[in-house]
Amino acid sequence: MRVMSAVRPRLVIGAIGIVMALVITWFAATSVATRTEAADSPPPPTFVTVTEGTLGHTIPAAVTVTRANALTVRAPRDGTLTRPVADEMIDVGDPLLWINEEPVIAAEGKVPAFREMKRDMSGSDVEQLQTFLRATGHLPREVPIDGEFGPATETAVIRWHAEHDITGPAAAIITPAELIFVPELPASVLATDGVHVGSVLSSGQEVAQVLEAAPSFAIHSEGDIAAEFREGLPVTVPLEDETLHAITGAPTTLEDGRIQIPVTLPEPCGSDCAPLRNGQRLSATVTLAEKTTGPLVPVAALRQKPDGSTYVTTREGAHLPVTVQIADRGAAIVSGIDPGSEVLIVAPEDRSG
Hints:
Blueprint: H1 2-40, E1 47-49, E2 51-66, E3 69-74, E4 79-83, E5 89-90, E6 95-99, E7 102-108, H2 124-135, H3 151-163, E8 179-182, E9 187-191, E10 200-201, E11 206-211, E12 216-221, E13 234-238, E14 243-248, E15 252-253, E16 259-264, E17 281-298, E18 303-304, E19 310-313, E20 319-328, E21 331-335, E22 342-344
Parallel strand pairs: 7-8
Antiparallel strand pairs: 1-22, 2-12, 2-17, 3-11, 4-6, 4-10, 5-9, 6-7, 9-11, 12-16, 13-14, 13-17, 14-16, 15-16, 17-21, 18-19, 19-20, 20-21
């Protein structure tokens, strides 16, 4: 009897151990299966609310100024430069430089001043003189501009000289030292390096460059960013006192492989461009896409059908066609859906319809 009593507890303990092992094994297997099912299950759908938003796309760019020299200005006589060269925009009648406190005046014309002009002379230089006198208000409109230095032209010369305190016989004669004919006015002037007030000038010495009235502009680009440019993009170029608004032209490829994009102003920039120099680089902003306001959705919410049309999936499961107005940096402005609607976000690898 004692032997039987000792055996029974050992049998009971062994049975309990077997049962517990089976329970642990079942629990472990169930947990692994549950975790596997959870891993294989797709994540719950995520919806976002469509809001009203604004998108636009701009990039910085460097605009290069090209401005050729229209004329080299040379001292018409010996003397001392007594005032600064007009380092700005000049027009008809403006002093270009002062030698011994006597002004040398800008006039428009392609024929340089090369001789004295006086009564009974004729020529294209006389015609330019008459045009100058008409522009400055000294030659009456009824007097023809015909290149003939007649009595009316002589009277106009005397009137103009009187404004500069020139009287006597010399008042009826124009000398080559009084006028500098510039091909096109208004124009910008750049003093020659080393020429300044107090410089002792010799006749024929270079003192300044008259630049083309209207500079040209271009953007030079390379690499991936070059593909962003196309014809008709708005460009803003801030200057010191003004902002230029321009448009890009058709891109062309240069010999070195760079892309050149001309930048065109709708009208000449005039005095605003007077300080600009050839080769100068200006900071600019190019608008690749104008600012657009409308329903804003994540790009991840957009899906595409086989026919190329775009749609979003609403919370109700409907495929709602939309049109993308602009997309930038993971967001898009679309039409075809109202703000406040909820749309499904689609993972990047599941973007195709």
